[in-house]
Write a sequence for this structure.
């Protein structure tokens, strides 16, 4: 599986961005996908994640609940993160990730494939 993020950029506080993650390769064994972020000097943290076929039960970090929405297309070829009401503390590199075991959606070690990231800056 290969993952490529896009859609990052610079936006003013209160604005919106939509991140995309293009998925290619053999996705047959992938059971979950998620978005993580890492700000300078901080650890990588989970933003949102879901098990395939269970998008209605997606996980969201408390800091983004009600503002961010994770989604995917039915063919498993793309995943999205709609980010509204952005705050300066949302500034980070955002990564998409895919996992095959996924005992926990919020633990980075459950994901075994990562994209290279897309930068989001909120001023």
């Amino acid at each position: 599986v290969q993952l490529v993020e896009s859609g990052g950029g610079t936006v003013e506080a209160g604005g919106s961005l939509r991140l995309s993650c293009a998925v290619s390769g053999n996705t047959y064994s992938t059971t979950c996908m998620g978005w993580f972020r890492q700000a300078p000097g901080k650890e990588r943290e989970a933003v949102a994640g879901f098990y395939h076929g269970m998008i209605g039960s997606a996980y969201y970090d408390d800091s983004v609940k009600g503002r961010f929405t994770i989604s995917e297309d039915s063919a498993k070829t793309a995943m999205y993160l709609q980010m509204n009401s952005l705050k300066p503390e949302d500034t980070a590199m955002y990564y998409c990730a895919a996992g095959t075991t996924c005992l926990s959606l919020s633990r980075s070690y459950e994901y075994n494939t990562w994209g290279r990231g897309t930068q989001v800056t909120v001023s």
